[in-house]
Design a protein that fits this description.
- The chain is an alpha+beta fold.
- It has three domains: about 25 residues; about 200 residues, Cupredoxins -  blue copper proteins (Immunoglobulin-like), CATH 2.60.40; about 110 residues, Cupredoxins -  blue copper proteins (Immunoglobulin-like, Sandwich).
- It is about 40% helix and about 20% strand.
- The chain has nine helices and 14 strands.
- The strands form four sheets. A five-stranded mixed β-sheet has the order 3-2-1-5-8.
- Strand 11 and strand 12 form a beta hairpin.
- About 0% of the residues have low confidence.
- Bound molecules: dinuclear copper ion.
- The site of dinuclear copper ion (CUA) has 9 residues, from loops.
């Protein structure tokens, strides 16, 4: 029995220490950490969290300390008999007042933070419309006439305001270091705004946080907070039409995509890239799938799931469901092109895509 207790105690202490160490390292390097806020709204939420955390630590230490003290001090032992007490007015007033004070200490700052978080965005906010889809995010900058997918750029120190919606099931929008979580509802607009306070090269990671089907866990996005100058450059390049293919191989791919490689599937439907995807300035005008006009400028594919490399794009087009379950199985999903195209054709398409900077 004693040995069991010792082991349990050791495991308990060990797990607390490991969590603590893990927490410290996550604080430093994990871009999806919740305890290192980088926007005004995230700081507001973090301050509330820290307040509640230390109050809980205080309550925990006080209660545990009192239990240990009372268990030892008033225990039954030779010559001492344990006594039962019934009713103590002073004590009862005290243990009613203290919790009320604790609740007020939490309630007042919370009640002052919520209206700020829920307030309307300032007039100079950058507007971004985001639509959740199974299983990716479509982003539009209405004032800048930019459409992109799964990766956005925003300038540091300028408020950014999101109109948040879904086109199919319920998703949720969350960038732990910047803002959220906000539900993405079909047919209902939700709003959120924040001002990012730190530009950096590495993206802030975002994630769908409402179970939305097979590839819910593969529904990620990236937010790049840029210095104003870098943001302006990004905007300019995104506003251009899709580039014409340069290399010979890319030209073949371009032809395959734009002359609409339409294949008839087993159930008789014709499919081709341009049915669903858009490449601005070409006849690819599809609206169902991610806009490919500047796909080469994005760092990832498949909703933030894989690095945007030639190898991954080839795998993706060959059979997307191998990389992201459910994508080809759902109706209107991405076809399994290895059933219709030769490896050489797929490579030429990928070469073209990688020239769409
Ligand atoms: Cu979308 Cu989970």
């Amino acid at each position: 029995m004693l040995r069991f207790r010792k082991t349990t105690f050791f495991l308990f202490v060990n797990s607390i220490f490991s969590s603590f160490l893990f927490g410290c390292s996550a604080w430093q390097s994990d871009p999806q950490t919740t305890v290192n806020p980088k926007s005004d709204m995230a700081v507001l939420i973090q301050d509330l969290y820290v307040l509640v955390f230390w109050l809980s630590v205080g309550v925990f230490i006080f209660i545990m300390g009192a239990i240990v003290y009372v268990s030892i001090r008033f225990r039954e032992r030779p010559g001492v008999e344990a006594k039962q007490f019934h009713g103590n007015t002073k004590l009862e007033i005290l243990w009613t007042l203290i919790p009320i004070l604790i609740v007020l200490t939490i309630f007042l700052p919370t009640a002052s933070a919520i209206p700020k978080i829920k307030s309307d965005a300032p007039a100079n906010a950058l507007q971004i419309d985001v639509v959740g889809k199974q299983w990716w995010f479509e982003f539009k900058y209405p004032e800048l006439n930019i459409t992109t997918a799964n990766e956005i750029h925003i300038p540091v120190n300028r408020p950014v305001s999101f109109n948040i919606e879904s086109s199919d099931v319920i998703h949720a929008f969350w960038i732990p270091q910047l803002g959220g979580k906000v539900d993405m509802m079909p047919g209902h607009l939700n709003k959120m705004w924040f001002t990012p306070t730190e530009a950096r090269k590495n993206a802030y990671l975002g994630q769908c946080t409402e179970f939305c089907g097979t590839s819910h866990a593969n529904m990620l996005f990236r937010v790049f907070v840029d210095e104003q100058e870098d943001f302006d450059k990004w905007v300019l390049s995104q506003q251009q039409n899709g580039m014409k293919a340069q290399s010979e191989l890319a030209k073949e791919g371009e032809k395959l995509i734009l002359n609409n490689i339409a294949f008839v599937t087993d159930n008789g439907t014709a499919i081709g890239c341009v049915t669903c995807h858009k490449i601005e300035g070409t006849n690819a005008m599809g609206m169902l799938a991610p806009d490919l006009t500047h796909i080469a400028s994005r760092s990832t594919i498949a909703a933030g799931r894989y690095e945007n490399t030639k190898e991954n794009l080839i795998k993706w087009i060959s059979n997307p469901s191998r990389m992201k379950p459910g994508v080809s199985e759902r109706s209107g999903g991405m076809p399994i092109y290895e059933d219709y195209l030769t490896p050489e054709q797929i490579e030429s398409i990928v070469t073209y895509l990688l020239e769409l900077k």
